[in-house]
Structure formats: C-alpha cells, structure tokens
TrEMBL record:
Pfam families: Amidohydro_1 (PF01979). The lineage of its organism: Bacteria, Bacillati, Actinomycetota, Actinomycetes, Actinomycetales. It comes from the Bacteria. SUPFAM superfamilies: Metallo-dependent hydrolases. It comes from Scrofimicrobium canadense. InterPro entries: Amidohydro-rel, Metal_Hydrolase, Metallo-dep_Hydrolase. The keyword Hydrolase applies. This is Amidohydrolase family protein.
Amino acid sequence: MEPITGWVLWRDTPKSPASFRWGTLSSGLSFHEEKTPGAGPWITPGLVDVHAHLGIGETGPAGQEDALRAAQTNWNSGVTAIREPGSPTPPVDASPLTVIRAGRHIARPKRYLRGLAIELENPNDLPKVVAQQTQTSDGWVKLVGDWIDRSNGADSDLDPLWDTHILVDAVAAAHDNGARVAVHAFSRPAIDSLLEARVDTIEHGSGMTFDHAVEAARLGIAVTPTLGQVELFPSFAGDAKKKYPRYAHTMTELFDHRYQWFDDLRSAGVQLLPGTDAGGYQPHGEIQTELQRWVDYGMTETEVVDLATWRARDFLGLPSLHPEGPEEFVIFEERPALTKPVSVVGGADLLQCRRA
Ligand SMILES: [Zn+2]
C-alpha cells in the first residue's frame, strides 16, 4: 500500500493509555524520531459505535435498503464496527462494516417501543428466550430493563421490567451460552438488580449513582452513556407532562443531574463505551457529535479517542493496529474522532492497498 506518515494512535501494552506518535503505516507500522506536535494527519484504529441500530428506522423496523444505507453512513464517518443492541430486522451484509448483533430486544407487553421487541407475557420465560436469542446473535443479547408502565395512569413512571431473581437466571443463561448481556436502563430503581445479576453492559445508565458506578467498575460492568439520548430527556418529559406527570418529573431530574452523573461514572473508573443509539431517535454517522459531548462534559480529547477506538475494540474483542500492519484504520486532517475523517481504509480498500 501507499505509505502514510502521520500521528498514529498507539499504545505499548493493553494497560497503557494510547497516545499519538509520529510514524509510518505501510505493509507494517514503524515509528520515527518524535516530531513536535503540529499539523496532522492523524491515524487511528477504526472507531466503534457500541450502540447503533441498523435495523430500526424512524417509524419502526428498517427495510434492507435503509439498513444498508445506514451501514455505509457509519463507515463513512470512520466507524468500522458497531454493536447492534437489538434489531427487529433480518441481518444485512453490511461489509466492510463489522456488525456484532444482539438479536432482538426482549421486553414485556407494552413495555418498549411498539413492534420492535419480543414481548414476554410470562416474565419467567426470560432465561429460556435469552438462551434462544444467543443461538442467532453474535454473542450478545439485549434486554429492556426499565420503561414507563402506562397501566398506572397518572402515576405511571419508569419501572423495572424484571424481578432480580429472573435477571440473575437470564444473565446466567446467556453466559452459559457464551453470550454477554446488554440492558437498557434510564432510571435509578432498575440499577441495583442489574448489578446483582452482573449484566455486561448498562445502556444509557442515566440513573446510576456514584455508589452504583463504583460497584459497576468493581464488577467490570461497562456503561454506554449515550449522551445524545440524555439530551432528549426534556423533550420526552415535555411530551408526557400532561398525561404522565411523574414520568415527566423523573426524566427532568435525570436530565438536570447529567453532569454530576457523568463525572461520577468517570471518577469511579467505569469503562465507558461510545454509543449514539442511532436508528429511531438518532441519525446514523454522528459518532463525532456524541464524542464531542463527552469532551463538553469534561473528558480530554485524547481520552475520548482512546475510548472510542482501542478501548472499545478491546471490549468487543476486535483487532486494532498492530506492528505487522493495520486491519483497518481511519485518517483525520484535524481533531481525530471529533471531526469527520478524510478516509477510512479497510475491507476491500485494504485488500486493494495490499495488492498494489
Ligand atoms: Zn438503542
């Protein structure tokens, strides 16, 4: 391939934080004398969106063409891998984008967006259905952990969907089948049982306290904070205010607490995973917007780019750059991971580079 020289995001050991070093990528990777930091280009492993739904469109399940377009949009934004935590649509061949599927959302009747989830009449069926989903997914399952329970009229609020003992059995069923469990949770009351059941990731997690975060860090439970979704909480509250004032109040409180919450997750040492929740409420291809929010909430740019590349890839078991040459990589002219890339190399492109 045509050699490229620039600031390469690199780390010496999996424990050390990644930093930019002046080097050249060709058939292998080599580093040169340190140059004074200045202009780019910057080269990073492929970005990851750990929470994006190719199979969900604006009004429900996405068609095959829309899912493919969403995959291309992700790729063009520098995202070379996504984890798809729940999709009602049959998988598309999104290559070169790597897609790690978590089967379909599992919920209870009327306790998730209409038409997207498997809805269990009997919550005791959860472990069985989880085990079934592991057979067709890519090593993940997705549970809806809390949602508004509209059967309580004006008192309706976010409530957990599952008793703790059922969750414990369901997570065990996934782990016995070699799969990990991602759980949607906005509210505070849902979190204790997720920690007790030792789920693998908490999606959103906006109700987590500092103590929750400490426990999650201790157990190795990661959190996908989806700040773009948290920013929508005032609109969710506004829409519901008349009919469901308690729920509206809960959403408003979670939103008002957002900066402290994000600080708590960081200072407790929880692994944070980048996720846009694209598909449905959020557009695809906007990982930069999400990561810019992480900076606005107090993280450094280097921390953010490390989490969105090396750390997220580790977490999903995906390869990154290595000394013999890259699997796939992304080139930025400015602010890596926070601006759109100038090119994304991988898949067929990389094969062509190798042949050249
Ligand atoms: Zn989602």
